[in-house]
From TrEMBL:
GO terms for molecular function: glycosyltransferase activity. Residues 100-278 form the Glycosyltransferase subfamily 4-like N-terminal domain. The chain crosses the membrane at residues 20-41. Pfam families: Glyco_transf_4, Glycos_transf_1. Residues 304-446 form the Glycosyl transferase family domain. Keywords: Glycosyltransferase, Membrane, Transferase, Transmembrane, Transmembrane helix. The keyword Membrane applies. This is Glycosyltransferase subfamily 4-like N-terminal domain-containing protein. It comes from the Eukaryota. PANTHER family: GLYCOSYLTRANSFERASE (PTHR46686:SF5). The keyword Transferase applies.
Length: 485
């Protein structure tokens, strides 16, 4: 090295570490953003086929070759299944609290619907509070809580319970929610399907979006650097071991593309089945909405009522909504925001005054009132992974949605501009979307909501989801069921 470039060994080592760290960080951001852009611009035709749903043979063939959501196909729910299956399920948690998480709610909805179709469901899950577990009276699905501390998942204990049950009578199909069952065990099971509710590729994007909303004077979080440094090796590890699972269920169209193109899973082993919600609970009921408004103190003079629900935490985008609504309420004194859920941002919202009503966690009856009381449902999430069930619940209730423009949302939910508003995940863009909604008026928003209701009723019901999973499980059980119709 020339003399004028020579530096002390210690300083050189330190500078190398700094540059290496920056290079790794830049690589993470570039890789994630580049592939994300490709997914945005290379959406397959199925993403845009709003009218694809049909019962007249519009599509036929081997379902394993379908690269669109199976929800778009017609399955006859009026007839009993051609075969009754014995299905084992591995789920890290089962809903035992009054405020379960999204994956727990999904699991309960799916397996209850499959059990109602006559299939025999056995769920292997983590311990619940003994008093709560004793109060459960499930006969189908049968819930197997392994020993240990409540909500402390130990797959080895669940696997032992599974092997004992399987020794009495073999299971036809095995289903694991994400990595509840690790690949070291899953690779032994050719009749296994895994549903992915969040993968490292999407988690890395979420960390980046959360860092991008930092204020100019806000220091970069050590957690952000740590998460990126941990997530890249995790991503590479996932790409290597995901192929050990026989069948993959992507719960969004964009996740299906990532599994095929980034994780390199053969297309015939990737199946897109969107989540569903209970269509009996989430219904369009304007009268209930008016009563709910009156109960919580929304005046009849309100020109626009917005709603947000779920966990009130940073990664759900609440810093964005807080900043955007802080500006909106000044310009529009008759616009209100209803906040349903719990978390640290609840107290912050209360600081915004009388135009914001923070209700806390809601039971199903009040949740129905909440959805029917609002004009637009807002979900400013910073998490690209999965599909938030609250968006489907709002659409089913006849409400337009306003959400971050991630591929998962644009590709599976807001597939038509009539369904609502999307925005880049930053406060200024959200504010512009809020102003647009305020300018449209209630009649226009109502028409949007009715379009959402029609689409959701065709795509996002618990029955539609269960029938799609049933057909996949039948296909795994016997190849003859893989051919549609």
């Amino acid at each position: 090295m020339p003399p004028h470039r020579t530096i002390a060994a210690a300083k050189q080592k330190k500078m190398y570490a700094v540059h290496f760290h920056r290079a790794v960080l830049l690589f993470c951001i570039t890789a994630v953003c580049s592939v994300t852009v490709l997914i945005y611009i290379q959406l397959p035709p199925g993403f845009r086929l709003v009218n694809f749903i049909s019962n007249d043979g519009a599509w036929e063939g081997d379902l394993r070759g379908a690269d669109f959501a199976w929800n778009k196909l017609y399955f006859n729910g009026d007839s009993p299944p051609p075969a009754v299956l014995r299905i084992a399920v591995f789920s890290k948690k089962w809903p035992t609290s009054s405020d379960p998480g999204g994956m727990e709610r999904h699991a309960q909805t799916l397996y209850a619907a499959l059990a109602a179709r006559g299939h025999h469901i056995h769920v292997f899950t983590s311990p619940a509070n003994p008093l709560v577990a004793a109060s459960l009276s499930y006969t189908n699905p049968v819930i197997h809580f392994h020993d240990g501390e409540p909500n402390n998942w130990q797959y080895e204990k669940a696997w032992e319970m599974f092997e004992e049950e399987d020794s009495h009578r073999k299971f036809d199909v095995i289903h694991t929610e994400s990595v509840a069952l690790p690949f070291r065990l899953a690779e032994r099971l050719p009749n296994l399907a895994v549903s992915w509710h969040g993968i490292a590729y999407e988690i890395m994007q979420s960390s980046i979006f959360q860092d991008l909303i930092r204020k100019p004077d806000e220091p970069q979080s050590n957690d952000f650097i740590r998460t990126l440094n941990e997530t890249l090796p995790k991503l590479l590890k996932e790409i290597r071991f995901f192929s050990k699972y026989a069948h993959h269920v992507a719960i969004t169209d964009s996740c299906g593309e990532v599994l095929r193109n980034v994780y390199q899973i053969p297309s015939r082993r990737v199946h897109v089945i969107l989540n569903g919600v209970d269509q009996r609970t989430f219904v369009d009921d304007p009268e209930t909405g008016l009563k709910f408004r009156s109960q919580i103190g929304i005046p009849q003079t309100a020109t626009l009522v917005l709603g947000v629900s779920g966990r009130l935490v940073r990664d759900k985008g609440h810093p964005l909504l807080f900043d955007a609504f802080s500006k909106l309420k000044v310009r529009h004194p008759d616009v209100y925001l209803i906040v349903a859920g719990t978390g640290p941002w609840g107290s912050r919202y209360r600081e915004l005054g009388s135009q914001v009503l923070v209700l806390g966690s809601l039971d199903p009856v009040r949740l129905k009132g909440f959805y029917n009381a609002i004009d637009v449902f807002v979900n400013p999430t910073l998490r690209p992974q999965g599909l938030d069930l609250t968006l489907m619940e709002a659409m089913m209730s006849g409400k337009p949605i306003m959400a971050s423009n991630f591929p998962s949302i644009k590709g599976s939910l807001v597939v038509d501009d009539e369904f609502g508003f999307t925005f880049p995940p930053n406060a200024d863009s959200l504010y512009e979307a809020l102003e647009l909604a305020a300018s449209e008026g209630k009649e226009r928003l109502r028409r949007r909501g009715l379009a959402c209701k029609k689409y959701a009723a065709a795509m996002f019901t618990a029955g539609k989801m269960a029938l799609a999973y049933e057909r996949l499980f039948l296909c795994i059980y016997n190849e003859s069921y893989c051919f549609y119709p």
